[in-house]
Known about the structure:
Blueprint: H1 3-21, E1 25-29, H2 39-52, E2 60-65, E3 76-80, H3 83-91, E4 103-106, H4 110-129, E5 133-138, E6 141-146, E7 149-157, E8 162-166
Antiparallel strand pairs: 1-3, 1-4, 2-3, 5-6, 6-7, 7-8
Amino acid sequence: MSNTLEMQVLSRKINALDRSLRSKNLVIKGLLEWYDEMPIDIETAVRATFAKTGFENVEIDVAYRLGPQRGVERPVLVKLVKEKDAKAIFSNRARLGKGSSVFIQEDMTKEDRLAWYKLREAFKSIKENESGLKASIRKGGMVVWKHGENVGYYRYDKEKKEVVKIEN
């Protein structure tokens, strides 16, 4: 086996392990941040957010802000004890309401965040040419539909470094 192929295989295995380790985690954006915020304040805000999604008695391992203080609200990484709780909360995040300034996301690897960003940018350019489109980005792919009918499936090809449409 060539070194390049071995590196690709190892890279895929590392990413799969990284995704597995993140499966109990959620990232919450838009939670108010105070200058002298304590860890208990973060956990209280997280619990209040989870209660809005219908999950009040969730076991939280740890919750903390990501990145340095810069005068903007930093996202909160929440590590839950049970993966099923993370999936249930993520599935019910729409209960926060359309006008909510708080967003719940899955904890993604750097590679997954890049793919998500590229797919989102691709959808913006697709949407410029045609109105009434909606999209869902999950697990490295994007489904685009109009009036409930699937109009396309896209993936980010990391070797080509571009979004490609997958033909059925």
